[in-house]
Fold this sequence. Notes:
The protein is an all-beta fold. About 5% of the residues lie in helices and about 45% in strands. The protein is built from two helices and 29 strands. It has helices spanning about 5, 245-250, and strands spanning about 10-15, 15-20, 35, 45-50, 55-60, 65-70, 75-80, 95-100, 105-110, 115-120, 125-130, 135, 135-140, 145, 155-160, 180-185, 190-195, 200-205, 210-215, 225-230, 235-245, 260-265, 270, 275-280, 285-290, 295-300, 305-310, 315-320, 325. The strands form seven sheets. It has a six-stranded antiparallel sheet, with no helix packed on it. Strands 1-3-28-27-26 form a five-stranded antiparallel sheet, with no helix packed on it. The longest helix has 5 residues, at about 245-250. The model is unreliable at about 1-5 (pLDDT under 50).
Amino acid sequence: MTAEAAAPAFPEIGRIRRLSPELDAVIPPGAVIEQLADGITWAEGPVWIPDGRYLLFSDVPGNVMYRWSEKGGKAIFLQPSGYAGPPTKVFREPGTNGMTLSPAGELLVCDHGNRAVSKVDLKTKAKTVLADRFQGKRFNSPNDLIVARLGELKGSIYFTDPPYGLEGLDASPVKELPFNGVYLRRPNGEVALVDDKLTFPNGVALSPNEKRLYVAVSDPKGPVIMAYDLGRDGLPVSRKVFFDASELQKAGGPGLPDGMRVDAQGRLFATGPGGVLVLTPEAKLLGVIETGFPTANCTFGEDGRTLFLTSNHVLARVRTLTSGLTGAKQ
C-alpha cells in the first residue's frame, strides 16, 4: 500500500478518554474521531437515511438542513428548514432541530421555527404537521424526539419542548405554555404530557425494551439525565436522576446534557460536559468521546456501528464495536 493510499480521508480531531477497561469492548482502542465537515453555525439533529446511504443534520440557528455522504460531502438539503416567513425577531433558532425516522422510514423532525413536530417527505421535502399544540396552546420549540417501535405503542413519538427556539427563552412574549414539557404523541394524534417539572428538557432516548425513557436536562444549574420507568400506556410510573453531570461540568468539560442514542446492549451515548458520555444501563461512565467542542447530538449510521457526532461547528464520526438503535432499524 502506498503512503498516498494510506492517508486518512478526513482529519482527526479530539480524543477518546477511557475511564474503564470496559470501553475497549465498545470503542476499539485504536479508534479515532474523524471530522467530516465544518462551517456550521450549530450542528444538531443527525439522522442516518439507510435508503440512499446519507446523513441529514440541522444547523438550527442557520435555518438549514444539510445532507452529508461519503462521496458527496456536505450539501444543502432544505433551506429554510424551519421558519419560512418574513423576517422576525420572535425566533432565536428558527431551523429544524432533532430528527429521527419512523418505523416506516419517514423523516420526523422537531421544527423550532414552526413550533411543531412534523413529517418531511424525503423526495418532495413537503412538511406535514403532526403536533403543534397541547390543550390548545402552542408549543415553545420542540427540540428532540424518539419513536416507539414495539408493541401497542409502535409509532408513538416522545419529544421535548424547551424554549430554545424563542428569543428571550422563558421570557419570550409569545410563549404560551407555563412550563417546558416532555410529551408523548400517540399514532391517533393525541398528545399526552409526560413531565412538566423539568427546567430545560432536551435530548430523549428509549431503552431497547422501551420500558425506560431517558431525558437530558440542559440546565447549567442542574445538568442531569433523567430516567422514567414507563407503564403499558407509555407514561411514567416512576422517575429518577439517572446521571448527574455536575462534576464533569465543574471539571471544565464543554457542553451540557443534550441529544443521545442507545446501543443494542442498552448503553447510552449521551452528549454532556466534555463530549459524548458512554454510560452503562447502570449509569457507569465508561469514557468520553471528546471532539474538543460542545457536542449537541449523535446518532448511529452506515452499518449501524458508526457514531456520527454533531459538535458545535463540525460534523464528525467514530467507529464502534457495538450496533446502535436508531433510524428505521431500531
